């Protein structure tokens, strides 16, 4: 009999761009020392979870996060690990790498809102966000909504289906804030946009017979647990 298939989806550790407030989609910077320390704690907090497989996006910050977690895991050397480009962050085109204020300054104006707070109060959709980013992108690199939806959904669902087909169990996945939030909206479209997931937070999904169920969102207790372990060693 199969075990339940559970995805532990982790937002990567805090990076240089996260720290100085720059937009980080397909652009990439490494984890800061603070970011590395937080992920080390996370790895200690997760070290006894029986992961059958591990995945990350192919972005450097996600791969760095996955490696740190696996290094701290009691069986990390034996957990199969692969990257998947489909679970990357959204691409922000010419806004990638710019300060957050540029992205969140122009997008509300395109959507006819006064500012970011006004836009979020009115609960815009992810499609509206994607369309606005395309309008703002002067390089024509940003992805259309349908392409983002198809790659993100197929990426996570294929990982879950593969694990269920091979007996179920726990899967560790390192991805990105907006991508994780977007995935949850595809599972339950009643959820508000949640683009402020904490670095190193865990969002847990259960997958059974082709259907995802959201268990926990933005859970940081594994970091706290690992910090306590680290403090006593």
Which helices and strands appear, and what pairs or packs with what?
Blueprint: E1 5-11, H1 16-20, H2 33-45, E2 51-56, H3 60-72, E3 81-83, H4 100-110, H5 116-121, H6 126-136, H7 145-165, E4 169-175, H8 177-187, E5 202-208, E6 211-219, H9 221-231
Parallel strand pairs: 1-4, 2-3, 2-4
Antiparallel strand pairs: 1-5, 5-6
Helix pairs in contact: 2-3, 2-9, 4-6, 7-8
Keywords: Hydrolase
Active site: 12, 89
Protein name: Histidine phosphatase family protein
Number of strands: 6
Major sheet: order of its strands? 3-2-4-1-5-6
> What number of structural domains do the residues give?
2
Low-pLDDT stretches:
none
Give the mean pLDDT: 96
What fold name goes in the CATH topology slot of the largest domain?
Rossmann fold
Biggest β-sheet description: 6 strands, mixed
Secondary-structure-derived class: alpha/beta
- Write down the CATH class of the largest domain: Alpha Beta
Distance N to C terminus: 39 Å
Brief description of this entry?
The protein is α/β, with parallel strands linked by helices and about 230 residues long. The protein contains 9 helices and 6 strands; from the N terminus they run βααβαβααααβαββα. It folds into 2 domains: about 5-90 and about 145-230, Rossmann fold; about 95-140, no CATH class.
Explain this structure.
The protein has 233 residues and is an alpha/beta fold. The protein has two domains: 5-91 and 143-231, Phosphoglycerate mutase-like (Rossmann fold, 3-Layer(aba) Sandwich); 95-142, no CATH class. 44% of the residues lie in helices and 17% in strands. The chain contains nine helices and six strands, in the order E-H-H-E-H-E-H-H-H-H-E-H-E-E-H. It has helices at 16-20, 33-45, 60-72, 100-110, 116-121, 126-136, 145-165, 177-187, 221-231, and strands spanning 5-11, 51-56, 81-83, 169-175, 202-208, 211-219. It has a six-stranded mixed beta sheet with strand order 3-2-4-1-5-6. Helix 3 (60-72) links the parallel strand 2 (51-56) and strand 3 (81-83). Helix 7 (145-165) crosses helix 8 (177-187). Substrate binds at residues 11-18, 61. One of its GO terms (molecular function) is fructose-2,6-bisphosphate 2-phosphatase activity.
